[in-house]
User: What shape does this take?
Amino acid sequence: MQGLTELLLLPLVGAVTIGVFKSVVPQRFAGIWASVLLVASFALAVLADIHLAGLPAGHREISGTLFNWVTGFGPKIGWNVYLDPLSGIWLLVITGVGALIHIYSNGYMHDDPDRGRFFGYLNFFIFSMLLLVLAGNLLILLIGWGLVGLASYLLIGFWYHRPSAVRAAKKAFVMNTVGDVGILIGLALLYVRFHTVTYTGLFASFAHATPNTAFFEWTAVLLFIGAMAKSAQFPLSGWLVDAMEGPTPVSALIHAATMVTAGVYLMARLYPLLRLAPDVRYAVAAIGAFTAIYAASSAFFQQDIKKVLAYSTLSQLGYMFLALGVGAYTAGVFHFMTHAFFKACLFLAAGSVIHALGGEQDLNQMGGLYKKMPWTMASFLAATLAISGIPPFSGYYSKEAILGQTFNSGHDLLWAVGVLTAGMTSFYMFRLFFLTFFGKPRNQKIYDHAHEAPAVMTIPVVILGILAVVGGFFGAWLNGWLAPVFRQYPGALHAALEHGPVYGTVLAVGLAVVAFLVAYWLYISKNTPARAGIGQWPGRWMFAAYGLDTGWRYVTILPIQVVGSWFRDQLERGILASVVGVANGIWLWAEDLRPVQSGYVRRYGLSIMVGLGVVLAYCLTRV
Amino acid sequence: MLWMVLLGIPLVGAFFVLSVKDSAAKTTAAVVAALEVLAFVAFLVGPKPTLDLNWISTWGIRFHLSADGLALFLLGLTAVMTLVAILASKREYGRTYFFWILFMEFASMGLFGAVDLFLFYVFWEVVLIPVFFLLTGWSGVKGRVAALKWLIMNLFGSLFMLIGVVAVAVIYQENTGHFSFEISHLTHLAIAPAAQPWIFGCFALAFAIKAPLWPFHGWMPDAYGESPAPVTALVAGVLSKFGVFGFLRVMLPIFAPEMARYETGLLIWAAAGLVYGAFMAVRQKDMKMVTAYASLSHLSMIALGIFSLTAAGILGATFLMVAHGLMVGGLFLILGVVEEKVGHRQFSGLMGLNQGAPRLATYFMFFALAVLGLPGLPGFAGEYMIIQGLVVHEVVFAVIAGVIMVLAAWYMLRLFQGIMQGRPDAPAVADLSRGQVAWLIPVALLVVLIGVWPAGITSHAVPSLFHAVHFVAEQGGIN
Assistant: This one.
């Protein structure tokens, strides 16, 4: 299958070999070995895509079955593998950005005594993610989906002696399980009706189905819940911010560039289903837009460099869902790609900063670092301009395409939210940039020890910085590359990239520029400290992400605990007492029966006669 | 002949173990159990003969055993888990302990193989004995209480089952004029409508107590808590399957119309246990109790699959029985190791044992993930098939099962993290020994194998279950 099996197995081999040999072989080899395998995977991914490009436009797909997953007289599902231009894009980003982050991690984790385990997990993540996008049916996708959740859990809780990391890992896993269950029930419903869960089989049946029935609305909702959980859309978003407890390369790879975009992949893949469920499609757009503005405003007052980036990830994922919901599928994928570049760059650059400051993540301790870390600063700036949507940086093109198409499709309100969010993004990102790299050093001691990261870290950051600058020019190519995918089945009429009205673009860019100026005025001219505003309303609210976690706690965790305690302390006692009840019952019964065994034969004889009589009478009455 | 070997090895082996010295008992028992695994492998790869002997001909009772698709992998589960449990047991337990373990294996093999209702009942009773003695002789302070509870509750259940067995046989005799206890003969019985719920209830009660299913689990906390880890692993891993197995082996063929009629009630009953077990597991402070109530919840999940009366649900239930046995058995053995290291079973807050015991942490996490239903591992495969069965006409139960899967993630991670993680200053405990890893690896590999390739089991489960499902279909209980 054009090297797909090898591509899939390479990182798995890496994870297993590192797991088995990490206590025998020196730790530094783990990082090198894992990185070499990733580069090889990237090469295989490129070859696979080249092969795909060589096929005629309408037939760009590679598929096969490895072996049966389940057979018997129930469902029949196989390990189907499927590659088409859509998964091909994800393949390139996963292995390409993944390889850069693997290389970077060799520097970042250099002093960690347990880094063999880290690289084993990292390779395992890549395997799971590849399984997710190469799956040819929803069930295998779900297996990959669950395994990336596990990889994320393992890496968030990598420093398992920290209680906060342990809690964050559990939260991420449990919230993601909500999504897994959504997909599970959704695919089960689809199987009952269509007797298959392969993409090709399902989509072929969808082409003749009647839209807008309750069946399709419900299946689409269930699958969307899966996408929401993995892509941290409101209200399943809290885990992603806590996930920043993991090492920074993990935040870059899993919690920004790849895993969290799995929901975007799923929804783009399922566009024929969204056609049949227009209400759900609108919900995708609305929740996306809401998450975008909700997360952007939550980022305003964050004190931790990684938390700002985490909220910005949420916000950008919201843009992608907005794109999918309004039918701008190519724009959504485009934004996924540019986001992978600039967000990975931002996180890795932030990692370099944290590394240079000896693990400090608090913005109140930073400032003035541009002198010490010029390369990191330059890359960070490029990525900040990209995410803020300033032309000609990459984010401008993809965001413009999303906003333009939202407008063209008549979603005025969602468009306005998107434009406003663009301005807000620019504000909080430049706030972050200025607080980190400019102004006077706020902690002289930490500042004095700061240094530029080693080349093994800087080079990947710079490469990603360059991609963040030029990534926007891939748009036309992407348009052509994805066109056959979205033409294959009905449901994606306006999938291609479109331009909105000029005044819309001017408005969005203008807002971003104004926000930049405001950030400059506040944090450079007036030298406002990072913690300004979090003490009072509305800063306190926004800092706490509007109390979402507390809300979840009161709606789910506490009721379950209260009911569970009631079961444990009240109901269970009754059930345990039932054993004693049975015992007593038997005892009493035995007491009652004891006089029967009197020892007198004549009494036994009488009993037998009476018994026989009763049986006889019974039989006679029945005849 | 192969059946003679399969039943003979543990039975003869058990008495042989009694004759050796205490110090050699563990090794001898392990060899016997290993031979039994080999005998099972011969069964697996070769033809699967049945053993059918005349036993009590006046009443048509036969000594009839068969390794059909339903029983085959449960026999394998019994063989594998017995071997692992013996390897995990302490040498000091002495020969009587190993005698009872092997005797339990014999009884379990017989029970899973029996296709004669009377023979099934005999093994059902026989298996009570070894557990009773294992609980009295080798358990914690409350071991005798636990043993008594086990015996009283299960005898109580068996009593009703005996009534049921006799009733079914008498009805068969009324229908046809002669006696037979052959389960395949007992289908299509004409049971008087007024008698149906009572006879049905007799069996259901016995099966529910043995499993246990909520709210008949009164014996469970003490028995699971007090017995040594290998015995808990066997009781929770293998013996707990008897009850749900009974629903498949006995109820489905004989009472298919009744099951279809009471379906909604049965589903509600199973769902109640599912929810109850999970909520209890979330609130336990004793590590063994978390797993015990998780097991209660999962047995209800299996029951839910059976009660869905769909091909997918029943297939999922048979698969999950085997998978659950391996997973929960492995987890209880791990917990036994942990208990031995820290000296108690309570966990509160974060204990942080991971420090210095990475292998223990790895295997612990693996089994916890398997139990919570991680996609790619067998718990997920079984739960998928059950949910696939439930969505056919009872979507609401599929949703309940889904919610409980989320809770399972919560209580299992709470258990694992609570014991292993979250403290930098935890006292270092010794890691798993090579010997312990040696018996954990095969279980873990089997779990991975059937998780990645459930078809290996489900493709065998066709012949016998297919009849059952089709019979239900005739009754209009399936689509």
